[in-house]
Amino acid sequence: MVIIADCGSTKSDWLLVHGGRDQQLENTQGFNPFFQSSSDIENILKTQLVPKVTTNAVEQIWFYGTGIHDSSRAEIVASALRNIFPKAAIEVEHDLLAAARATCKRSAGIACILGTGSNSCYYDGSKILDNVPSLGWLIGDEGSGTHLGKALLRAWYYRELPADLNAAFVADYPEGASAIKNRIYDKGANAYLASFTQFLGKNIQHPLIQKMVMNSFNEFLDRHVGKYSGYQQVPVHFVGSIAYHFQDILLACLDARNLHAGEILRKPIYSLAEYHVGPMGTSE
Question: In this structure, are 95 and 142 located in the same domain?
Fold first, then answer.
């Protein structure tokens, strides 16, 4: 048995592949080695994953996660996995490489993440050659859920929403301005801000909402994708819920720049399984 894992800060997907063919998807709480220790991670897996897996039968684990920015962070996760899966060969990598492998496969391309946060890289078919820094939700994350949430809230607080949208917003968020502001400056603000994309999706036919989403995507393309050498000659791929749910606008933004749109995946996990195990079950 092999396991492919895609781990975010709040949720993780674990795809168990039996005999190179049969697939079983399990979910656990997410984790980030920037904020959690190896023992914390081990405890999460022992309670949420181990009851669903025959640990001694696992031969290989490919783990991709948020926060894996260097070898020390990778070792935090690898140590927890080794303690639980003693017979498995373990590879721990950043989630940006997951996006690249899932979309580009073994060809050159630009891989982007547009989810709660955003990131991008230029991938040559085997490794990441360039990465415009992601500055996080406070001053960066263009094109992401947090970026869009901030744009919507600014428009609402500054009384820039037309009457119909304002009425819809108040109906959906009756807690009011003070309560929303308190949540913005509380723990977990990035996920809270990103949650407002539900309102954007519900009202996506409104011209102002379309413009808001388009502006955010254009800023991402300008600040990130457009900085890579040869960006107009290779496909631009996307992974993440924001890219997936707003793909019509995203594709229009790419087309306006004469960029080659590649794959747009909500989740990378099944494409990662194809990358590692192959569609016919041949392990690589």
Answer: no
